[in-house]
Specification:
By secondary structure, the protein is mainly alpha-helical. The chain contains 16 helices and no strands.
């Protein structure tokens, strides 16, 4: 049972612990900043699951997923900012010389259309990128470099368009979709946001597990282990890769929208290459090709950062995270989940580093 349902049991345990967070807060066992931080971790776990779909299962290493995370974050932040201004132009628009609300901002005047844009914008961007790249059969390190370049280009564009995006500062001083979540008077809003976000994480996990547990998931593994063989078996590999890339981008955008509600702001720093590489570290340390490993890695690394990035460890915590990543890649290629399966569950074929031959994958 542990071998077959171990990941689901582990995920259920994580969800149970998170569900008790508001209860522990009410009991005085943690403060509101910790609750908000765990809410951000939920968003990080969501984007990590999407990244695991394309990297762990399909073998596409994207070093630019921060772009889609930020697109979703900006879309949500634009809606929330307009709610605070009553639909009028913002201060940074005044400063940038604008006299009326830009056309690109108008779809974010209401929530339903904003939710559509959170999904539609990254889907279109990733669809166009994926179509041309995968149709040209660009893969491996070349795709990683292109994803970095596109992310950097988008970052530069958001900085340059300061009248529309507020440049380096980004969109700040916004409340959540349920209103303010700070202070005892708004405790109910914070709890509601937390549980809604937790529900989104559960839905994304269920979707990912459903996909990888079906023939579609086996095809992704076949593409990862032998793309040419899968192609000559009669499958349109580029279409599968484009679809999973778009799906992963949409998941990242949803995560960005959740993140903004807890963070109260979005800046171009969430779009940088360094931020995207950090997401890869979460998946690698947790265990790629497992889905649950992405969740574990996202929570573990961010909790370590939360506790080590202040006090005596403030100057060395980044080196510690980097060393942990290097050790994982060199000695524990299956990450935490792979290590547990190898040494405690006796599953020697679980780690992605010990991938089965393509002939063994039933396409």
């Amino acid at each position: 049972m542990l071998k077959k349902q171990g990941s689901n049991i582990c995920f259920a345990f994580i969800v149970l612990l998170l569900a008790l967070v508001p209860v522990m807060f009410s009991a005085g066992l943690m403060n509101s900043s910790t609750v908000l931080f765990l809410g951000k971790c939920i968003a990080f776990a969501v984007v990590a699951m999407g990244l695991d779909l394309i990297w762990g299962y399909t073998g596409i290493l994207s070093l630019g997923h921060g772009l889609y995370f930020a697109l979703g974050g900006y879309a949500m932040a634009m809606y929330l900012k307009l709610q605070s201004t009553g639909g009028k132009i913002t201060d940074f628009m005044h400063t940038g010389g604008l006299d009326e609300l830009p056309l690109v901002w108008k779809p974010f005047l209401n929530l339903p259309l904003s939710i559509i844009m959170i999904i539609l914008v990254p889907a279109v961007v990733s669809g166009v990128i994926g179509y041309f790249i995968f149709k040209s059969r660009v893969k491996g390190v070349y795709f990683s470099i292109i994803s970095q370049a596109l992310t950097w280009a988008a970052y530069s564009m958001f900085i340059a368009l300061s009248p529309y995006t507020n440049g380096n500062v980004g969109i700040t001083e916004i409340k959540s979709v349920f209103g303010s979540i700070k202070g005892d008077a708004n405790r109910g809003n914070m709890f509601l946001l937390f549980y809604i976000s937790l529900g989104i994480m559960v839905l994304i996990y269920a979707l990912c597990k459903f996909l990888v547990g079906r023939k579609f998931g086996k095809l992704l593994i076949a593409i990862r282990d032998g793309e040419n063989r899968t192609y000559f078996s009669g499958y349109r590999v580029s279409r599968y890769k484009t679809f999973v890339y778009v799906l992963s981008a949409v998941i990242a955008a949803v995560a960005g929208a959740v993140f903004v509600n807890f963070n109260g702001s979005i800046t171009p720093s969430q779009m940088t290459i360094a931020y995207s590489i950090t997401m890869v570290i979460w998946v690698a340390i947790g265990g790629r090709g497992t889905i649950i490993g992405a969740v574990i890695g996202a929570f573990l690394i961010n909790l370590c950062e939360y506790n080590l990035s202040s006090g005596a460890m403030v100057e060395v915590w980044q080196y510690l995270i980097g060393a942990l990543f290097c050790i994982t890649i060199l000695f524990f290629k299956g990450g935490i989940v792979g290590f547990v399966k190898d040494h405690f569950l006796g599953d020697k074929k679980a780690a992605p580093a010990k991938q089965a031959k393509t002939e063994e994958v039933k396409v």
